[in-house]
Amino acid sequence: MRRGSWKIRIFIGLAIVAFAFIQRCNNKEENPYTGRVQNINMTADQEIAIGLQSAPEIAQQHGGLYPDERLQTLVDAVGNRLVQHSIARETPYRYEFHLLADDRTINAFALPGGQIFITYALFSKLNEAQLAGVLGHEIGHVIGRHSAERIAESNFWKTVTMGATVGADAGGIVGSIGQNTLLKNGRGDELESDDLGILFMIQSGYEPEEMIKVMQILKAAAGPNRAPEFQSTHPDPDNRIQKIRESIKRYRGQ
């Protein structure tokens, strides 16, 4: 490669990386419901559209919706109670709760914009208050805009990777860092959602101590071969229990 061409590639690469960082700074905004400053590059309407578009495929991956309408009605009732008694009712999101037929995977998750899912495998282990804790946690992910934040981070790292690839043969390293940040919600996201979930439980008249039992259920389901916390995107259940107890004391004014 000629020397002049090499210099041009470096310049273009640096310009692309600089653009990514400038755009990231411009995308910073304060979440009106949590007060946290985040990197967000989409509107609430776009979040809702993404969630609605993705929901059918997500349901299909877990065997579709659970066929018993009575149980779905219970999930709806608990979820809507949490929304109506919390700041969730003030948000522009469309909260819809889905009980999935999957009876093997113990899981619950939320898509951007308010689409919330819980598998029958997890649902079947919970009482109503514990179900409220799980759904409140997932509502917390929506209000915390955690998916939108990961999407913005993904776009940022893709642009940085492009600049690194143009300027030098280092794109693989940068790209892998970006991908790893998007696999699941980060530990901070999980703890923030736990905290919001406890607040929503208290506001809706549920016993927040039941959330500790949810953590114990998750810990037992993970088994003895659970990965150490530093190897996981989720905090260790024991660590989450400690934080949950702190949230309960804080919101009860103790």
Description:
By secondary structure, the protein is mainly alpha-helical. It has one domain (11-251). It is built from ten helices and five strands, in the order αββααβββααααααα. It has helices at 3-26, 44-61, 69-84, 120-123, 128-143, 146-167, 171-180, 187-203, 210-222, 237-251, and strands at residues 28-30, 37-39, 96-100, 108-110, 115-119. The strands form two sheets. Strands 3-5-4 form a three-stranded mixed sheet, sandwiched between helices. Strands 1-2 form a two-stranded antiparallel sheet. Strand 4 and strand 5 form a beta hairpin. Helix 8 crosses helix 10. The longest helix has 24 residues, at 3-26. The chain is globular. The termini are far apart. This is M48 family metalloprotease. It comes from Poritiphilus flavus. GO terms for molecular function: metal ion binding; metalloendopeptidase activity. Belongs to the peptidase M48 family.
Total domains: 1
Radius of gyration (CA) equals: 21 Å
Strands in their spatial order, largest beta sheet: 3-5-4
How many helical stretches? 10
Runs in which pLDDT lies below 50 for 5 or more consecutive residues are: 159-164, 166-183, 228-232
Compressed to H and E, one letter per element, the order equals HEEHHEEEHHHHHHH
Characterize the overall form.
globular
A few lines on this structure:
The chain is mainly alpha-helical and 254 residues long.
What topology emerges from the helices and strands here?
Elements: H1 3-26, E1 28-30, E2 37-39, H2 44-61, H3 69-84, E3 96-100, E4 108-110, E5 115-119, H4 120-123, H5 128-143, H6 146-167, H7 171-180, H8 187-203, H9 210-222, H10 237-251
Parallel strand pairs: 3-5
Antiparallel strand pairs: 1-2, 4-5
